[in-house]
C-alpha cells in the first residue's frame, strides 16, 4: 500500500512537471496558472501546492530539469570527440543549437533570470552546465592549448557570450543564423588558442 502511494505521488509530481513545462515553454511564466496546470493533469490545486508550494516552486523545478537536460546534451556532444579542443567546440555548438528548443529558449534563457532572479538563475546554471565549461577550459589551459590565464573569468565571458547568442538565435528566423553563429564562435575560440 505504501509503495502504491509513493508511486502515485511520484506520478502526480511527474505529471505536474510535464504539464508545467509544456505551459511555461508555450505561454511563458506569467501566463501560467497553477490551478489550470493541476486541472489539466486531473489533480486538485491542493495537490499541486503539496508538491511545489507555489507556481514559482513548480517553475523552479522545471528550470532545474531543463537545465539538467541541457547540461547532459552539451556534455554528450562534447564527449563524442576524443580531442579536448573539439570537445569544447562541440559542447559550445550544442549549447547554441539548444536555443531552438522552445523549453530552453523560453524557460531557461528568457523567463528564468527574471522570475528567479539573476543570482539564483546563475547558481542553477552553474550546477547544471557552467561548471563543465570551466572544467573544459581549465583542462585546455593545463594542456597548454589555451594560454595560461584565470579560468573563471574566461568561462564567465564565454558563457555570457553564448547565452546572448542563443537568445539571438532563438529570435532569428534566418536559415543561415546558426551556421553564421557557429563560424563566429569558431573565430572567437580560435583567438584563445596558443
From TrEMBL:
DNA-binding region(s) from the entry: 33-52
Domain HTH tetR-type span(s) in chain numbering: 10-70
GO molecular function terms listed in the Swiss-Prot or TrEMBL record: DNA-binding transcription factor activity; transcription cis-regulatory region binding
PROSITE patterns (UniProt xref): HTH_TETR_2
Source species, domain of life: Bacteria
Alphabetical UniProt keywords: DNA-binding, Transcription, Transcription regulation
One Pfam family it belongs to: TetR_C_41
Protein's name in the database: TetR family transcriptional regulator
Entry keyword annotation includes tRNA-binding: no
Keyword ATP-binding: no
InterPro entries cross-referenced by the UniProt entry: Homeodomain-like_sf, HTH-type_TetR-like_transc_reg, HTH_TetR, Rv0078-like_C
Originating organism: Streptomyces uncialis
